[in-house]
Amino acid sequence: MTGTPNPESVSTKIERIAKRAREMRGVGLNTLAHFIDIDWLREAHRRTRKDGASGVDGRTAEEYAANLEGNLRSLLGRAKSGDAYRAPPVRRVHIPKPGGSKTRPIGIPTFEDKVLQRAAMMVLEAVYEQDFLDCSFGFRPGRGAHDALYMLRESLMSMAGGWVLEADIESFFDSVDRTKLREILERRVRDGVLLRLIGKWLNAGVMEDGHVYRPNSGTPQGGVISPLLANVYLHEVLDEWFECQVKPRLKGRAVLIRYADDFVIVFEREEDARRVLDVLPKRFGKYNLRLHPEKTRLVPFRRPPRRRVPRGPDHRRPGTFNLLGFTHFWCRSRKGFWVVLRKTETSRLSRALKGISLWLRQNRHEPIRRQHRALVKKVSGHYAYYGVTGNYLALDSFRYWVRVLWCKWLSRRSNTSGGMQAMNVLLEAYPLPRPVISHAI
Fold first, then answer.
1. Three-state secondary structure call for residue 93
2. 343-388: per-residue pLDDT in tens?
């Protein structure tokens, strides 16, 4: 039917692109943009989130869908006819970073730009998924944060800990060297239409407080295609370099786990870890990237001895490190064995509770039933991510403090709240869900 996406046809094309990329590894592919037709754009529109914020034009997904067929055909014609398509600047907003007063700039493209970026990303993803290594997990189909956490724990347990290089790339999305990014892309993708579109998105600029700025480096964090471009860049900068050049020169085992621009490297031997720590800033510097001097550190993470030993002057307890919102540490299991466990990172727990408190303050005069429904969704969403094996106490603590905050803001609705006894009755009538461990990893 006209205007209806044909996922089967699109999926067949995606598999054709992937097959060609597998058969031609290391070769630049010239003809890719011809796969983007009206059916491809319909599928890209279907995959694009409809509830996101609008861009600089203020156009919503509902307004765009009112004349969807005409808009998509116009977009297709402009995208493939050279200079007829002009990428609008992204609207910049700032969101607070966890554990500090700094903010993270997010770029919001227009809805039409999101659809076209999604269409281009579907092509590029089919190509680069054949090249990406198993050590990267962020923003890839069929892979997620919990897969990265599972691989990290398995690596730590098999090595009995070791040394963990916890790294932080300073302002990654603002520091990407566009010239080098284009060089990396052209080794694999030589289609002029796709390269021209990517160039336009990179140079579109950002609008903030009514003014348009055009920075010389970086990719807009928040764009649909930005995570894929980040993966392509770091695949060259880190993944391939570590697997092909660094690991063969090490004396012991080592494992890299990367999720977007967050990564850790686990080493079996301290000397290997220190050698890589010395050379890593130089490697990143070649690509205009910089490791945060305070957040990049080497953590001794050896498994403690099976039996308790007296603490001498050389006794050193294993450290802890953070990745993907969890603090990783050694702890004895119920059977007395040392295992790697995870708990919610303190700054993430604090940020989640601050968000709950702000929402409760702003909605404290809403009906109790409506507040309860919203809180159940928020608490369940927290459990869905942080509900990993060994993290029950942190989840229970989160639930406890949400109850406390709810009571606090309800008591401020009037001067006759009824005290804690009335609050306990209310919490029995409107209970919050108990913690659920949904990820046995």
1. strand
2. 999 999 999 999 999 999 999 999 999 999 999 999 999 999 999 9
What is the layout of strands, in order, in the sheet containing 211-213?
A: 103-108, 90-96, 206-208, 211-213
Number of alpha carbons in the 13 Å side-chain half-sphere of residue 19: 6
Q: Please check whether residue 55 is in contact with residue 88, taking contact to mean a CB–CB distance below 8 angstroms.
A: yes
Q: β-strand 326-332 against 321-323: which pairing, if any?
A: antiparallel
Count of all residues that appear for the chain in the document: 441
Tokens of 131: 């090249």
Furthest CA-CA distance within the chain: 77
For 165, 204, 290, the CA distances from 286, given in Å and listed in that order, are 20, 25, 9
Give the per-residue pLDDT at 383.
Answer: 97
Q: CA angle, corner 186, sides to 184 and 192, nearest 5?
A: 145
- At 160-172, the pLDDT tens digits run 989 999 999 998 9
* Angle at which helices 7-23 and 38-47 cross, to 10°: 100
- Which residues make beta-bridge pairs with 264? 166, 257
State the average pLDDT for the chain. 90
The answer to whether residues 55 and 111 touch, using CB atoms and an 8 Å cutoff, is: yes
Query: Would you state the pLDDT for residue 310?
Result: 58
In angstroms, the CA 172 to CA 265 distance is 18
What angle (nearest 5°) sits at the alpha carbon of residue 196, between those of residues 193 and 202? 140
Residue of 350, 348, 306 whose CA lies nearest to 330: 306
Residue 5 predicted with pLDDT over 80: no
Q: What is the pTM of this model?
A: 0.90
pLDDT for the residue numbered 1: 44
Q: CA angle at residue 52 from 47 to 55, to 5 degrees?
A: 110
